[in-house]
Specification:
3 helices; 71 residues
């Protein structure tokens, strides 16, 4: 074991610890912000944003609709 109280994330950072995400932020808000940021960095290209997020374009479209981000 690593001797830490939190599970270890992909980057080796503790999940829910000092990974740069406040523990009181709802997951939906984090996901929405990740989608908005990734879509912006992809120049609005939904296919590229979905690829960067590791989801299908269909899933991205569903999440955009859920979060009121559809054009």
């Amino acid at each position: 074991t690593s001797g830490q109280d939190h599970p270890i994330g992909v980057a080796g950072e503790p999940i829910g610890g000092d990974a740069g995400i406040p523990s009181d932020v709802p997951l939906e808000q984090i996901e929405r912000e990740a989608i908005v940021s990734t879509l912006a960095s992809a120049g609005g290209n939904k296919s590229e944003a979905a690829r960067r997020l590791g989801i299908t374009r269909k899933t991205l479209r569903e999440k955009l609709k859920r979060y009121g981000l559809m054009e």
